[in-house]
Amino acid sequence: MFEIYGEGIFKNPVIRQAAAISWAFFLSLFPFLLFLLSILPYLPHYDKLQFYIFDVMLANILPADIKVYVTEYLQDTLIPNLKGISNFVTIILALIFGTNGTHALIMGFNLNTDVKRTFFRNYGIALLITIAFVSITVLSLLGIYYAEVVMKLFNPVNSISWLVNNLTKIISFISFPLFYFILLALFYWVGCLKIKRFREAIPGAIFSTLLFGFITYVFAFYVRDIARYNFLYGSIGSIILVMIWVNLNIILILFGNELNLAIKKVKMDKKIGDELAAQIEQQQFVQTSSAPNNNDHNIQL
């Protein structure tokens, strides 16, 4: 399996695919954030949801230094101008442009497959995945909010007061890796044409989720203690860091997809081998069972 997996990574230009997909994903990132922030005012508990996006969600997705850059851009540039540009047409256009990254990723999943979907079907699936991602994000943020409200209705005893005070951190620590895993599994299942069952998408989703946590820690250390992009490039350094971060995550997602395909290929080869072995065994049994009958016939003659 490791030989097939390595062949899938090195024979197929995964790194080159990731670079192309990352560019499309980066260009769609800010329209997607514009869409997400545009629909928040129409939801209940708007102020609290906005707090969770900046202090909880981004903190679990981005390394600390990159989170600071993205938060400053959103709070200082995007949100103050949001009321002037937020309307139905803008929201729809932001959703369409924000779907381009998802569409590019789906195309990357199926680049080396013989079966192809039409452009409109691929884009429709990407649009549904983007809407599902936004819906799950909003529901998870609302879930954190209501969990806090319910817990604070009770008068906690000293033994669980620490739990209540740190509930947001605990829930986010558990829920966001789980959310990332479920989203990736659905992504592989719906987006990749060779993955027919949901359980076939699970190994790659687990692998990418674990690598995501590891890479997040390593990249945060690199940005904080080694890289000095702001000193070298000025304000554009933060954009470079975001692009590198997007590229790393796309590589991880493609690695997970290749793992799913490698496992499926091993299972298919084993199934075909077992079927051939069964056919050969059956033919040998027929030949050996018919041999005594031929000998008896010759003796009678």
From TrEMBL:
The chain crosses the membrane at residues 20-40, 90-111, 123-147, 167-190, 202-223, 235-255. It is found in: Cell membrane. InterPro entries: Virul_fac_BrkB (IPR017039). One of its GO terms (cellular component) is plasma membrane. It is a multi-pass membrane protein. Pfam families: Virul_fac_BrkB (PF03631). The keyword Transmembrane helix applies. Keywords: Cell membrane, Membrane, Transmembrane, Transmembrane helix. PANTHER family: INNER MEMBRANE PROTEIN YHJD (PTHR30213), UPF0761 MEMBRANE PROTEIN YIHY (PTHR30213:SF0). This is Uncharacterized protein. It comes from Elizabethkingia anophelis. The lineage of its organism: Bacteria, Pseudomonadati, Bacteroidota, Flavobacteriia, Flavobacteriales.
